[in-house]
Design goal:
The complex is a heterodimer of chains A (635) and B (169). In chain A, a hairpin with a 4-residue loop joins strand 14 and strand 15. By secondary structure, chain A is an alpha+beta fold. Chain A folds into 4 domains: 101 residues, no CATH class; 178 residues, no CATH class; 76 residues, no CATH class; 217 residues, monomeric porin ompg (Porin, Beta Barrel). Chain A contains 17 helices and 23 strands. By secondary structure, chain B is mostly helical. Chain B has a domain of 89 residues. Chain B is 63% helix and 0% strand. The longest helix of chain B is centred in the N-terminal third of the chain and has 23 residues. Classes of the chains: A alpha+beta (635), B mainly alpha (169). Chains A and B meet through helix 1, helix 2, helix 7, strand 7 and strand 8 of A and helix 1, helix 2, helix 3, helix 5 and helix 6 of B.
Chain lengths: 635, 169
Amino acid sequence: MYIVLLLFILLFASSSPVDAGELSDSAYLAELIDKGLQAKLAGEREWHLLLHYKENLFGGHTSEQDDPGFFMSPDGKTNPQAELDATLKQFFSEELVGRSKQPAQCAFIARYHWLRERLQFDDSRLPRMACERFDRWFNDFEAQSITLIFPSAYLNNPASMFGHTFLRIDQKGQTEQTRILAYTINYAAYVPPDSGIAYPILGIFGGYSGYFSTYPYYLKVQEYRDFENRDIWEYRLNFTEHQVRRLLMHSWEFGNAAFDYFFFKENCSYHLLALLDYADPTLHLTDEFLLWTVPADTVRLVASKPGLVSGISYRPSRSNVIRRKRESLPASERELAHRITQDLGALTTPTFAQLSLPKQAFLLDLASDYLRYRTETTDSPPPEWKERNRAVLTARSQLRIPSEEFKVVPFAQQPELGHKTSRASLGSGWRNNDTFEEVTVRAGYHDLLDREVGYTPDAQIEIASLTLRHYNRANQTRIERATLANVLSLSPIDSVFHAPSWKLNIGMNTIKHNGCQLCSNGVMNGGVGVAAERHWLKREVFFAFMEGEANYSKAYEARHRIGGGGTVGLLADLSDRWKLMASGTYLRYALGDQSDDFRWFVGQRYTLSQNWALRLEYNHRDRDNDVVFSMQAFF
Amino acid sequence: MSKKVIMLSVAVLFGMQAGLAMAANPDTGPGCGLGKLAWADYSHQKNIAPQVMMATTNGTFGSGTFGISSGTSGCTNDGKVMAEQKTTLFAQLNFENLSQEMAQGQGEHLASLATLMGVPLEQHAAFFAMTQERYTSLVKTGETSPVAMVKAINDAIASHPVFARVSTR
């Protein structure tokens, strides 16, 4: 008996047991592939969500992912069926695949779970592998729910101009006070240091790779609230435990691939939407974006799904905490808090000693906020600021009472209440002795006269705008204006905040010059300045810029002119719906066509609803008068 | 019986293949260098605080990227903080917020630290009062070493009557 058994083993060993094993594997594989084919699994939405297939123009499917590591079949990007078959085959193997170097069952754990359930894998014929790395990673989240996080726009960094979005994985037993301990799922481009001018170009055309990461939320809060002074909005999503698990399983699969990062479309927001779609396939979030994904639109879309958002919280930037705390104080105490930041002697004055303990604590807290704000937003801050902050905090610790909670009312309301990000206008008006009709389309995003709800105050970003105008008497239709980018940031200055204002405009317009009635004129203009805020009527912002400008047009001698000058202006809220802007500019051109330019602009906007507005604008430049009345729709 | 042998042989063979595959394909992922780049946005600002943060996150936290093979030097597994380092890393990375909140006798960073140290919710107020009282010495310790600060808080908890129960944890 023993000998027989030995012979048996030897026989099998010599006649290559692998063949036999592969034989049984391949038989089962063929069975599964056939079953999958019968069930038309490759055509199911779930499979398309897992592999990010979108229907292409020819009726087939193409995945939006480009990294070969995301696919098991060389044709996986364009062939859902081949990918499904190859995936099933790979599940039999322990070969390490993808960037994460795991067996396919673990690397693509969501695909495995779905196919296992749909095809009812026989675990004895297709053994289940242990996925310890995934289990450890998953368990460490202690996941209970998901929150969508939106740090608002930050104009001083081109990467953050439109805001950002990421997910927070809320932990079981987490409280309002401990949510900073939760992990996040964040997608960002890998941008080499010192990329400088290459950044916008490569960023727009997919020159960078994006990766997913899981930083603790406290690091993200520091980054946005403390260092960049951005408000953060948190949208708690109504997901079941099952949906949370699906989301994390699919996130894990994202760890296997690098994605081409496209600033306008396949950016942070877009990939998060893919994750949310997978968590709850009935949402259809990624179906709604064709050309670009702006983070604020993502938030608007998520908030518009009935029952998806169960709560919204606001986390103010440090600078807005300081502003609101200062506003809440009478002038004398505001002044006292400011004096503490400059001279600790203020703490021993009778004025300070007379105050109640909670009031003393409030002023010391404000002083500390301010010293930290200065330290963290200044190039190489003097060491005495940090020392003074320590001294303020030491004095504060001696008061022995906890600070009272201070509720900060946001300056900009939550983003989903704002207008949509693209705009179309129909207008009509007079220019000199002629009348005209015009149509304008602007891809994004917001200008100073647009309804400010939901947008960073006093910040303008116009991208890709085109105006076509038909002049009735001249019987001429022409491109009246085109804007590549027109960015402007006003930062009102007070005794605490002294950031400069700045602007940059690249585009073309139509001028009357040297006898040329309607001449195209290329413009590049940039400037720095100051702004101040008053509250005489409602809210007024005054500004002044020093600027340089270069023009290119056949209307000029030598076809160009370069010069400099200045602008002063005013932006005023006349009512909740009615806004006014007025500005005057003088420019003297010393190079090229030696000339000067004196311009006036008065514009008014009246809001009809969240996405509809009326405009009346008057432009004057050097014996050239232009009045246009328009109706604007945001979409 | 024979089936078992076959399975075993298959498993060994596949195991070997896996071993070979690992040897042939060293980790070509982005590795820990990415941690530094997460803060590249600040390079133009010459801002001291993010630089400090960059140094600490890069040294101890790694890139935060998951899906990279584990064991890359300086990285935690798949972007997560090792359990035993959670408290000290938190104290180190949030030192400025923690010292401010200790002086103020409340705040989310302080509450989170208390939670990480196992202080139950109903004793948070006592924990806040204790760190406020010892603000000067705790911050002095923390400035040289956050690890020492965590230890000092732990010692204070142990010797504090209210926390007697907690300290046995």
